[in-house]
Write the structure tokens for this entry.
Amino acid sequence: MEYENRFRQAHRQKYDCLLFDLDDTLYPLSCGIAKACGQNIKDYMVEKLGIERNIIDDMSNHLYKNYGTTMAGLRAIGYDFDYDEYHSFVHGKLPYENLKPDPVLRNLLLSLPYRKLIFTNADKVHAVKALNKLGLEDCFEGIICFETLNPIHKNTVSDDDEDDIDFVGSRRTNHTTSTSASNLQIFDIIGHFAQSNPTQALPKTPIICKPSEFAIELALKIANLDPQRTLFFEDSARNIQAGKRVGLDTVLVGKSQRIKGADYALESIHNLREAVPELWESELKSEVAYPSNLAVETSVTA
Ligand SMILES: [Mg+2]
């Protein structure tokens, strides 16, 4: 029994869970989804929020850079809008036809004996649609998405709110407080960064999203994950670095060169077996070793 316990200790897998970003991680940037999404966000800012088109590029750069998503930045500087409407506008016209079923990735994922979760800043409709297009909809235990970290309540009294933080099939409510931008005080973020020495602090956003460490910690808590035993896959360097700061092991996807904060780097998620073979090895050793002749196996593989 003692041998067995020691063996289990020695061969315990390094990870309990693989946590995957979705966009530009499970499919390549070259699919054009991100580019189209960026354009739709800019169109939303002009058409729905009445922002002048000539400042859109500058403004969205500042917002994305400082708040993680343009949406989070828009809320921070004073715009209010219906979140579902925003998401359906920016995702509604995406070229989803560019996402094709990926049986190679599907087989890779299904061969990995770990909990597997999606963690995306996007909304659930987009995440489910993209996963379906990729043929990966049943490869994950759950999806941690915008609504998971930003549960939204109806203004009217709701029947119950208790499962608002469920990450699997997070229940939706409607954001009903749409406010006209013209009544709002908007923080001038372009003017702020035009100053050589901005003294005023940037306003805070009510939206929780990567790369905030709080967002990552909240996601881990909701999914009951130990950061030390979770491997985090991301295409975004700043999300990788935030993940590292909260204690995750990290895989940068889409680049072959590692950056600060990345434990591994993969040009494509398809290279996972070559780049991180230990994800399969520990399972293989356990299968070979259990349950016979533990002492011998321990000496060979310890
Ligand atoms: Mg991404």
